[in-house]
């Protein structure tokens, strides 16, 4: 059932005054006549209370259905098809990729602030700026969404503008590129363009962000919510990582929430905790629909969500007044959108157009294995304008270039079975005392994937040989990892240092790398060189 279908029903059920009005007619008929006894009045009151409780139960039931459509942090993603891709694989882009942007995108669990928003609410943060200045600036923003001022909001504003300047300047740099896109999308949907700032709170504008609850992408959609808002998720594509497509889905969600609550602040809160939790807070507050009156009854995380939204909106407007400078991010302003209706690999595009794989991934992050699977339906390719002419001129050659290699039955089966793209196949001999948890930690893979690759259950025995495809946290696919002579090797990338390399592999330290490779703290390493990481057995 689609949300637009059930919302009118919910809205009708939420019309409690109408229920009270109809029932009050019965009360008026029974209160004043002399034959009405106290016992009858009590029975009438109890009947009305039961009727109201029944209505509330129906409302809660429908809100549970709607919460299936909502981006709730408590929702899990365990039923999603397993894929290794943008979110699950750490790769280093080509030299042409801006190093700052690459670093930012390679951080999976991107958090905007170093503490929970609700913790900021209770802090006492000092500022040299008087309250009157903050109030005046918020009023001058002339926002369609209410932007009040209180101590909680002040705390968030001061935190955003003073406590994390480097991170905020990176966000501001990304905002120069993404905010106009999001504002146009929200305007197209007839929504306040200020809602675009929600992407800052959700993901710090990181297209590869993956939360602890497995919400993904810049707009942090859970699997079920994404599917219900028509975002494609399969072995090749996850449109949660497409900032444009997922922004349209976020706009649809917010429209549905506004139709339920009739208030943009409550719609914003529901994006974080779900419509059911917002409705419970409304009821516990005595029926108020003012965010600050229901504030104590909301989930702890959601209490700080709206103040953080206001602080982000404020900071994006008044960053100059706080001596913040947007960092320069290399993102082209001119992209052409091409419709692809055949299988197409990024390497094919790169070979004939000169576009780097890093650029193609940056503007098309939804394709998990560098493949656009344009067979069952058409997909889009976003291409920087300077490469479009070459693509058109060589289109037939591009599709035919090494297609038997990129799209061989074996290669496609590997992807569809959940094997990491560009992964390294390792045969691990189980040692005494090792468990699946040990191997999961060592190689940075999931237990259920080790089980699937080897067709086993929960038990393993010493001496048993297990096939493991390294990828994700343990041994990043696509970063030059290989196995030879009983050792795992890593090919040094531009900008690497021993500290960064050690962090890419679970259980590996800088001291171990230096000892294994005969290096010292003063040794220099060079792109293209291979260094030993550890023994493979």
Q: Globular, elongated, flat, extended or rod-shaped: what is the shape?
A: globular
β content, as a range? Answer: 5-15%
Q: Alpha-carbon distance between the termini?
A: 52 Å
What's the β-strand tally? Answer: 9
Largest sheet: 3 strands, antiparallel
Q: How many H/I helices?
A: 25
Task: Look at the structure and give the mean pLDDT.
Answer: 78
Radius of gyration: 28 Å
Structural class by helix and strand composition: mainly alpha
> Strand arrangement, largest sheet?
7-8-9
Low-confidence stretches: 1-5, 13-34, 64-99, 472-479
Helix content: 40-55%
Oligomeric state, counting identical vs distinct chains: single chain
What does this structure look like?
The chain is mainly alpha-helical and 537 residues long. It is built from 25 helices and nine strands. It has a three-stranded antiparallel β-sheet with strand order 7-8-9. Helix 2 (16-31) packs antiparallel against helix 3 (38-67), helix 3 runs antiparallel to helix 13 and helix 12 (264-273) crosses helix 15 (300-318). Mean pLDDT is 78; it is low at 1-5, 13-34, 64-99 and 472-479.
